[in-house]
Structure formats: structure tokens, C-alpha cells
Amino acid sequence: MVLLAQALYVKRKTPRLPGAAGPTEGLVPGDGEPFRLAVLGESTVDGVGAADHEEALTGCLARELARDGRAVRWQAVGRTGANARVTRAELVPLVRPADLVVIALGVNDTIELRTAPAYRRDLLRLVLELRGRLGPVDVLVAGVPPMSRFPALPRPLRDVLAARSTALDRAAATLERIPGVRHLPMDPALLDPAAFASDRFHPGPAGYARWAGTLARAVIS
């Protein structure tokens, strides 16, 4: 009963921020044929907490990948509230041909108390669906954010969701057994209070920029 009461309180009191405004596709100018980046997932890909996609996760990541002078064409395919199953069924068909697809999921699956084996199965089906449509595209699975660091969550609800987010992230990491798929756990240090938007649940522009930097280094390394 305590957890249910806390969950209802958080849902009622947390400000409902909109997704990022503006185009969901863009080009960072540079040399040569553009590197094609698609980012797929939940509200962080929808850009909640940022004014537009230029300062949200996808735009920040595209600029990081363009630091070596190459052109990067980017696409953000996100939906607030989407879990892995919804993403596979409804968002994957919207992804354009890409050289790299970054998947950012897990918070909604955590909140829904999805089990680790079920989440792994959903992600696997998602990757297979992507490759069935796009061919053998490289995939980077961003780690499930450690919900122990979310300021909007009170205890003990925070502790329960933290344990579940950790379990789901470990399940996601097993997809690295698939050639061309990489998993990058999120460093909890990225989620200090300054990284969050006004709802204290989603990243703000500074949080997106820092997260994008870690993802870019994983791609480039």
C-alpha cells in the first residue's frame, strides 16, 4: 500500500513536460556522405525536458559524432510512455535507413515492473525487427538509467524501482552476444541533480549533452 500511495503521489505531483518541439530529423554539416544516425525509444528520445531536438539526446549525439568533421544526418523516433513492446510494434516502422541505431528504453518497462527475462525478449525482438527492415545495421543499446538517482522518486518506491532498473539493464547487456550489438551501461554519476529537468525525472539539456557524450565515445572507440 505504501508503494502504491507513493506512485500515485509522484504521478499527481510530477509536472507533465512536453516532448521536444521542432523537426525530428536534421543534418549536422560536414565532409563526405553523411553518417546516418537514428535514435529510437521512450520519452528521452521524444526529448522531454528539452526545448527542441537540437538540445535533446539525438541532436546532442549527432553533434558529438560530427566532431571529427564528418556530416551526420539524424532522426529521433521517440514516444513518451513507450515500452520496448510498443517501440517494436509502432516505432520501428518509422525508422529510416541508418548506419547506427541507438535504442534508449527501460524506464517505462521498469515502472511497469516488467521482468528481466521478458524485457530481454522484448529487446531481442526489437533488434530483429530493426534488422529485418534495415539490414545488418549496427545497434547501440543505451543502458537503463539507474532509477536510484531520480530525485522525483521518494523512498521506498525509489529503492524498488532502482532494483528493477538494475535487473533490466543486466538483461539488456546480454544482447551484446549478438554481432553488431553493443550495450553501454549508464554511469550513475551522469545523473546528479543538475542533470535533470524541472520535473526532476527527465534529463534537462545539460543532462542530454553529458549522456550524448558518453554514447558518442562508445561509438567512436
From TrEMBL:
Keyword Isomerase: no
Keywords: Hydrolase
Pfam families: Lipase_GDSL_2
Ranges for domain SGNH hydrolase-type esterase: 39-210
Superkingdom field: Bacteria
Matches recorded under Gene3D superfamilies: SGNH hydrolase
Transmembrane segments: none
MF terms (GO), sorted A to Z: hydrolase activity
Entry protein name: SGNH hydrolase
Organism name: Amycolatopsis bullii
